[in-house]
Design a protein that fits this description.
109 residues, alpha+beta, 6-stranded mixed beta sheet, 2 helices, globular
Length: 109
């Protein structure tokens, strides 16, 4: 009997790296390497979820991993859409994006 490996049964990837505040990322080009969506630990905020995004700076030759957290529904929807498109083309989740603040919300462009 073949015993399946854990990583073939679970779609969970550990996203590690130094934490960066989203405001410190505004207008910088990032290479997004992964993301996860979980229930927010801040129940009193307007968002019920938290998006954790792993990235490195586009101009970083070392490609040092970083992460940022956001409760932005815009970013969540954008990441979900990109993931669907890349998966439908059998491409890895790897793309460039810039964090922008539009009015009072954050967006990827």
């Amino acid at each position: 009997m073949d015993i399946p490996k854990f990583n073939t049964l679970v779609e969970h990837t550990v996203l590690d790296g130094d934490k960066v505040k989203i405001d410190d990322l505004l207008n910088k080009v990032l290479v997004i390497t992964g993301f996860s969506i979980s229930t927010s630990k801040y129940k009193d905020k307007s968002s019920a979820f938290c998006v954790k995004v792993q990235f490195y700076y586009c101009d970083d030759d070392k490609k040092e991993k970083k992460v940022f957290f956001s409760g932005s529904s815009v970013i969540k929807e954008q990441l979900d859409e990109v993931k669907r498109k890349l998966e439908s083309q059998n491409l890895p989740l790897l793309f460039e994006a810039t964090v922008k603040k539009v009015g009072n919300y954050y967006s990827l462009v």
